[in-house]
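## Example pair
The file below holds two records. Each record gives the amino-acid sequence first, followed by its structure token line.
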Amino acid sequence: MNKRHKAFTIIEILIAMLILFTAIAFSNIAIKAFNNYQRQSVRYQDLYITALSLKEKMNFLTQFNALKYSGNLNGIEYTINILELTRQKNYEIGADGIGRNNGDFLITLYELEMILIKDSREKSYKFLLTKQKRIR
């Protein structure tokens, strides 16, 4: 007897369900990874914008020899520590060809540390800043 089957067998249905569940699982993993990446990107963007905004404040604070400054900007707590490393006159070569530190400018080198805290996550930046002031 030659009988034709017009329905799926149980094994075929199980294999199709396995393929479907695998595709759904991989899609779910990809969506979670994308959402995590997006959250990190927004967090980094907030920190970066705040750091750039604080750059002008740091230039301003060095004029008054402030050593430490704290505050809150864009929901991010920040602390700025300023350390004066050195202060000297600019290097000048005289008529005799010998160089000396007796120029017309006083140059100050500062080390700045900026600590940003948001949602109990802390990011620290350190960099150097030079200021010059005409003395003659």
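Second record, same layout:
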Amino acid sequence: MKRLTIGLMWLSALRADSRINFFCDSARPEHVKRLRREHIRAINADKAVIAGIEEVVRLFKRKKLFVVKDRVQHFKKEIYIYVWNETTGEPVKLWDDVLDVLRYAIYTNNRPERRRTGGRKERESVY
């Protein structure tokens, strides 16, 4: 019951500020449709793996992305067990849910082509 109440409060906040983008996994179009039906600004995320990871790393290195440590328990667990497949050079799809969500939001919001064409100005991000 507590999760449901928090979820409903969160959805109400998203509806109240329609400028907030909610980046979604395109593998679940039914969720995107539902969020849009609820008047939430649902956007299919660009799920580019390597380019997305590079964008997140770039922002960390430039001190443009910060993580509030006491608010992200799952992030702290996942970041230290994130591993790469030595054969394929891709991340192993295990214990990566939070990191995927971070990558989806950052890369979709800050796509490199937007920087090159004078699109949205890069800004500090706190997640």
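Notes on the second record: The chain is about 50% helix and 10% strand. Helices lie at 2-16, 29-37, 49-61, 73-79, 97-109, 112-116.
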